[in-house]
Amino acid sequence: MPSNTLTMDELLAQSEVEALKVGDVVEGTVTSIKKHEIWIDLGARGVGVVLRREIGHGQQLEVGQKVTVSVIDPEMEEGHALLSMRRAVKDRGWEELERIFSEQEIIDIMPYDANRGGLLVELEGIRGFLPVSQLAAGHYPRVSGADKDEILQKLNSLTHETLRVRILDVSRKDNKLIFSEKEAVKDDMAARFADLKVGDTVQGTVTGVIDFGAFVNVDGIEGLIHISEISWERVDNPKNYLKVGENIKAKIISIDKDRLSLSLKQMSEDPWLSEVKAFKKGDEVTGKITRITPFGAFVQLSPSVEALVHVSEMSDDESVDPEKLFQLNEQKQFKVLEIDTENRKIALSLKTTATKKTTKTKETKPKAG
Fold first, then answer.
1. pLDDT at 237 over 80
2. Mean pLDDT estimate for the chain
3. Is the pLDDT reported for residue 342 higher than 90?
4. How far is CA 297 from each of CA 218, 276, 322, 328, rounded to the nearest angstrom?
5. Distance of CA 75 to CAs 40, 68, 150, 151, 297, Å?
6. What is the rounded distance in angstroms from the CA atom of residue 166 to the CA atom of residue 128?
7. 24-89 under CATH 2.40.50.140, yes or no
8. Among 154, 188, 220, 236, which has the highest number of CB atoms less than 10 A from its own CB?
9. How confident is the model at residue 83 (pLDDT cuts 50, 70, 90)?
10. 104-185 placed in CATH 2.40.50.140
């Protein structure tokens, strides 16, 4: 029998090849890779073409590679089939994603892009999203004033970086796929929190400095140093004391759910307690005006000791205006009325020193004649 003549079994097998239908998922071999299209050999079922837009994100192909494709159109006018790799991957991908979700498996992902709301991810041919709110403490973008451009810049730095996540929500019907980095580290964080207690000294890295304090990454746990806990001095701008990327030691002052409240100033002794010993009730003192408010003025008596002269202790005139009576940074004399060491408060009076000066003036006034 000539070698090019088919046997009866081969002819029967060929005739039983099922025709392609829309939605079929079949296997083929890459025969040609062009700029805008990939050609696939489907064996006895002919050939097909995959347009570039129908290839999964980041998928690398080479001639001779076996691939799985989905049929979009079984027979174009030119006689070949129109195929999609993306759809084929999606069909299988949803099943795999649902399995990962049901088993709460921790997986690695690599975001390919970012927007102001979070990171864009493709997994198993399905595009998903990792919201900013679901980033772990070490990756959360802490910026002043919620600057959207700065947030985007920080998120862009996470693209093409491997992140460990759990699937938070998956729905083929709604075409929804949401990831969470926080959920992936939750169990580990719980174990770390169990080892911490109030009063412990911890080491961390400053991840953000904002108007009301600074955020610190303590071995993956988020910590906050409130502006009032940065220094024993009065802090107007936290950025004058802390910088992003700086490694610091701080004391845990409270543990709230998934965050630590930290103190930097409590790492050293309170200088107020030693400096206040230089003053006692009834003393005449000289101080610099640091703040003026409708209810009084704050006076700096030493580098760490600040006192208050209440509006009622400024003058016998009840309509006295502190802003007219004082100027910022001017030096004035006061009398110490009270020292409350427990609450770190000192009350001053301007009235007694003013009365004393008036009396002295009257005593030294020369007599007439």
1. yes
2. 86
3. no
4. 39, 19, 7, 9
5. 14, 18, 51, 49, 87
6. 12
7. yes
8. 154
9. very high
10. yes
Contact between residue 155 and residue 118 where contact means Cβ atoms under 8 Å apart: yes
CA–CA gap between residue 99 and residue 118 (Å, rounded): 24
What CATH architecture does domain 197-267 belong to?
Beta Barrel (2.40)
Segment 92-101, tens digit of pLDDT? 788 889 999 9
**Domain coordinates in residue numbering, the chain:** 24-89, 104-185, 197-267, 278-357
Lowest pLDDT segment from 185-194, 207-216, 300-309: 185-194
* Residue 356, pLDDT score: 53
Query: Which comes out higher in pLDDT, residue 296 or 358?
Result: 296
**Residue 194: what pLDDT?**
85
**Residue linked to tokens 């009576």:** 325
In 273-367, at which residue ranges do the beta strands (DSSP E only) sit? 284-293, 296-300, 306-310, 331-340, 345-349
For the record, the structure tokens of 35 come out as 């700029």
Angstrom distance (rounded) from CA 68 to CA 312 = 85
Tokens coding 344: 């770190």
Structure tokens at 277: 């010993």
pLDDT value of residue 250: 96
Burial class (CB in 10 A: 0-12, 13-18, 19+), 116: exposed
- Residue 179 predicted with pLDDT over 60: yes
Query: What are the CA-CA distances from residue 268 to residues 227, 232, 264, 273 (Å)?
Result: 16, 9, 8, 12
Q: Select from 217, 233, 219, 226 the least CA-distant residue to 254.
A: 226
Which alpha helices (DSSP H) does the chain contain, by range?
8-15, 85-102, 148-156, 181-194, 271-275, 322-325, 351-364
Task: Give dist(CA 18, CA 149) in Å, integer.
Answer: 55
Give the residue among 124, 122, 123, 143 at the shortest CA–CA distance from 132. Answer: 143
| 271's tokens | 């200088």
Q: Pick the range with the lowest mean pLDDT from 6-10, 32-36, 72-76, 171-175.
A: 6-10
Give the CATH architecture of domain 278-357: Beta Barrel (2.40)
What strands, in cross-sheet order, belong to the sheet with 163-171? 107-109, 163-171, 176-180, 126-131, 118-123, 113-115
